[in-house]
Amino acid sequence: MAASKRDYYEVLGVERNADADGLKKAFRKLAMQHHPDRNPGDKQAEESFKEASEAYEVLSDPDKRARYDRFGHQGVEGFSGGFNTVNINDIFGEIFGDIFGGGRRRQARNRGADLRYNLELTFEEAAFGTEVQVKIPRPKRCGECEGTGSKSRQMRTCPTCGGAGEVRYTQGFFAVSRACGQCNGSGHVVSDPCKACRGNGTVDAVSELSVKIPPGVDSGTRVRLAGEGEPGENGGPSGDLYVVVHVKEHPLFHREEYEVFCEVPISFAQAALGAQLEVPTLDGMVKMKVPEGTQSGKIFRLKGKGIPHLHGSGRGDQHVRVVVETPQNLTSKQRELLSQFAESSGADINPHAKSFFDKVKELFSQK
User: What secondary structure does DSSP assign to 308-330, as a single string?
Assistant: First the structure.
């Protein structure tokens, strides 16, 4: 049977002088490619995996490799009385750690889960920053049992796995391990559950935290509070809390990044004659000059009246768009005055209208 086997160096695809690292890299590549967990039901992949595992088991052992190099397959099998079943977990524990069930899981210090909290802010709070108190429902370590889940704070070795945290199953060539179902891979069980946490090691609680919101945040900004998430397992570190900002709409302002925009209505007379207006900003009312002859839709910039830059210095600008309102519900006197104004108006005071109608005449005269 030995003569029917392929050369181990050929199986791994390495030269005969390959070192330990070269062997390991070659086997890792083949194992990842042909492992049964990745190729369920594929007999060819299973056979290739067995072949690669057998080759690596021999060539990675200096004594076995020396006998193989001298006598070939017969030298290895004759010395040991036949090829031993390869313990996949011993090989994978060295190369892959916990991949494919390798390694030991006992007393894993698992990090706690991260938490998310949605925080609604006013437009001004988001612009200038604030400090808010939030209540976070989250589990915390039980104080009665110090997170052990045991009333006596002592754990008993799991009778199923003997404290290993895993159970091994041998089926033909393979020796596969799985996390112990009784202790969930911890290697110990609680024989006297704590009444306060019912053996879970954590209790439900509501924590009140102070959250500092920096100036310049916008909807979608996340503020991270390190270590304020769920507690870890077996003494592992706690997760983080992410506060996600949602900014309410403002009745006057809207923003684009750090720029603020608003509209201000002005009268026909103010637009024609010019005026000194008081316009709203995030800092309060400020004066803004509107020159005579201002057209509806004209935008004025108020430098430095926008949103403070997040994690930086300076502020954006505010952009004020003026909208000229047409007067309504005129009195007879007002109608008379406007009629006189219209009769006395020449082309010079409405240059845009003159230019428009000149273009219209030119267009239709060509037809």
Answer: BPTTSS-B--EEEEEEEEPP-S-
